[in-house]
Amino acid sequence: MLILNLVIQEWKKSYRSQGFYKNLAVSIMLGLFTLYMAAVLLFLGFSLNEILEKADNKLNPLQLFNGGMLYVMLIGLVIRFAMQQLNTFNLPPYQVLPIKRSLLVNFLLLKPLTSPINYFLLLVVIPFSIKSVVGYYSVAVAVRFVVSFIFLVWFDSLMAAFLKRKYGSNLLSFILVILVFAGIAALEYFKIFSLFAISGTLYGFIVLKSYGLIVSFAMVCAAFGLNKWFFSQNYYPENFNRKMTNDKASTVELSFLNRFGVIGDLISLELKLILRHKRTKSLLYMSAIFLFYGLIFYTKKTYESSNGMLFFVAMFVTGFPMITYGQWVISWDSAHFDSIMTKNIPIRTYLNANYYLMVALNIICFIITSAYFFFGTKIIYMHLTAFIFNLGVNVPLLLLGAMYKTKRIDLSKSSSMNYQGMTYKNYLIIFPIIFVPMIVVAVLSYFASLWVALGTLSIIGLAGILLRKPILNSLVSLFHDRKYKLAEGFREGE
Amino acid sequence: MIQVTDLQKVYNGVTVLNIPALTIPQGESFGLVGNNGAGKTTFFRLILDLIEPTFGEVKIDDQRVMRNDTWKTTTGSFLDEGFLIDFLTTEEYFNFVGKLYNKSEGDIAQFLDSMKDFFNGEILGSKKLIRDFSKGNQKKIGIAAALIGDPKILILDEPFTALDPSSQIRLKRFLTDLQTRFNMTMLISSHDLNHVTDVCKRTVVLEKGKIVKDLQTDDDTLKELEAYFAV
Lengths: 494, 231
Prior knowledge:
The complex is a heterodimer.
Chain A: H1 2-16, H2 24-55, H3 61-83, H4 91-95, H5 101-110, H6 122-136, H7 139-167, H8 171-189, H9 195-208, H10 213-233, H11 237-245, H12 261-275, H13 278-290, H14 293-298, H15 307-326, H16 337-342, H17 347-368, H18 377-402, H19 425-428, H20 430-447, H21 450-466, H22 468-491
Chain B: E1 2-11, E2 14-24, E3 29-33, H1 40-47, E4 55-60, E5 63-64, E6 75-78, H2 90-100, H3 105-114, H4 116-119, H5 135-147, E7 153-157, H6 165-182, E8 185-189, H7 193-199, E9 202-207, E10 210-216, H8 221-229
Parallel strand pairs in B: 3-8, 3-9, 6-7, 7-8
Antiparallel strand pairs in B: 1-2, 1-4, 4-5, 9-10
Helix pairs in contact in B: 2-3
């Protein structure tokens, strides 16, 4: 009864929050995307048996799947660590009521397990177990397989929550996790240590033996126990709130930026903004993950001939951080916009700082992604063109687009999967920025040649770089007109 | 010097501010009182070019504030939390703002030292971010940041609210001191008539966007204001 009340109150909290009904367009888009993903996963589930049968002739599909199980667990853990929101629950108002604390803690811990997003991968697992496991083994094994997968999801969810609560999600711990994971993958690749074999044995035991599920369940219990232990150690909310937020006052000294005068000061301000807010930090992690996007496409033979697609990937890989950040380059300052407008910062300097920040992001990404140059000279030219085009055309375009985003962005609220302050308009800018050049490349390389296509874009990009001054002048002039709309929009909460 | 000519702000057909002419000479302390919605903050925002006037203009030192950055070098202001950068520590914030006004680190340290009394030992030296301070302390931080660039013009919206009694008295003393020593122009709004008449030599009453009283402060001013606002 009490639990039911808590659930109802949580639900009320979400639909009574302002902005619940506002972003209908965004919700519809997300809904469509979810349906699409579900269809893809379902399709994968039905065809996984055939794929795995062809992949290896010694092991059967289930054995292969079991071998990958620990990898699924680790990847899930990494993704959750980076993206899963901690289920924060406003404890104090309930603490003073006669409700047992352990009940509140259990609610806090177990509620995330009810989120349907957790069980998305079952769309793959269930068809696979029906089509493949039943055929190779028996119905009982298939059921155990599905149940063990659900246990794995629970384990991941609880474990990620514990790690996050205990260690906080700063950039360093995230990089550490990624490195550990990369290390395991490398050891596997060079056949020094095989997690695949361990996983195969472990999950073989869990799935095939009738009492194997006990192991799986014990892991879930252990993860749950760790969480309980954490809460018993940090009895008062103020304690674990401090734990969760103690990384924020870490002062970063970016003294090398001092040399660049006010522009340098503004850029270092912006970097602090990124590093001290959850929402921007998770954007940063997301961007880091998208740098690997190229690995999916550049390695495939199928894409070798479709230049448009390859160029799209090149734009995406070299420009993703710049585009995600740059779209809201002015909105990020919405909470202190009045401050920036009234302190001694000339508008030109302010826009220049934002301009150079995006340029810097672009350069950094270009350098990091130069690792892809090993995939061939074509990739080199594509990245170079994308880089020049981004610098010359997309940076000013993003700055222009940012001036039309008048919604306040609340940085303090939460991390990823946060669509507060976004409307369908925000996605419009993506079209001219990524799809138009992609189409240009596709069309020109079809009718003329790839070199004509890349040359054209490079020339346009170079023109943009050379005309930087006049372009910026007109942006400054436009900003003077837009300033009042921006200030007004930013002052309004949602 | 601030010159206002024919200034009007209309929202959805409702005129929220209408000031045909107003001049605030250099060195004057200008107090603004009025009930909620009288247009005090709107007026300050128009001076600071944060909202667009429907008609008319504001000039600071004979230059229009619109499409202009010059006035920012001589104007210090604090209206609300939007004037703070709340994810910085106080030291970072003062350094950032100080540098914008070409202050050296020595200048900034000296300035902060002079604010010691006002800060009452609570603002500096902790690594706390501004967003974690109480409202009153945030106000002190904002007022200090408005002063760090040695402004000729200081604009404060309700500087006394949320401050504790001792801080209110300190702030009053401090503002009077700034007037006499630096001949600073000051625009201060408040709901507390006592504070305004204590600090300001001229008091203006706004009602529904119009100036209804413009008084040189003397011994009778407080009584006159109290009589005006009595219901």
